[in-house]
Design a protein that fits this description.
This protein has about 240 residues and is an alpha+beta fold. Helices cover about 45% and strands about 20% of the residues. A hairpin with a 5-residue loop joins strand 3 (about 135-145) and strand 4.
Amino acid sequence: MKHALISIALLTLVLCGCSGEKPQDLRAKIADMEIELDGMENELSEARARAGDLKTELSSTKSKLKNLEERAAGEMSDYPRTFSHIGISVPDVEKAVEFYRKVMGWYVIMKPTVIKEETETAIGIMCTDVFGKGWGSFKIAHMSTGDRIGIEIFEFRNNEKPKEFDYWKTSTFHFGVQDPNLEGLVAKIVSHGGKQRMPIREYYPGKKPYRMVYVEDPFGLIFELYSHSYELTYSQGAY
């Protein structure tokens, strides 16, 4: 590269010589240019060395970042997940939405909607994945609790009310709702067609104010009412 630049410089100086410059002046200029080119080569060499160091540093940083990501992924796998929603099946989705809106105060985030079996939409494909072929259609609505837990309500065409409370079978056999005024909520449930399945009981009689009761909605779903949070009720060890 240096020799090519010098050749260009000589050609330039020769052309300049046509203007009458003296040979000694031309030699001085060439010497100055050689010094300048040497400096440029040194700077280029140093830049290449720095680039190599930066490349090594970048590779090391990437390796450290990957190790941190792997560690973070391992640690994150143990964090407590939050509850998203619960799905319930009822014989009449409109009536269920009205019951839970009036009694629990839950609000509608998607009104009752008919979903039909097809393969043109994402929801149609998802439902076939879950229910298999031949499910035909169903109604669905989405509600939310005061602490933003979703309540997904289904109405299937072949809906059947459970004949017994099969709590011993592998399944989700109840969900829990929290309200400090159990008597008031139970009375509201009963007045809207539900049932109180047991007396209101204390977990720690005479010691702590934590109470519970099992109830049933008008459609046969059984759920539990707590007077206090789940963590408070069990944090000191139960029973």
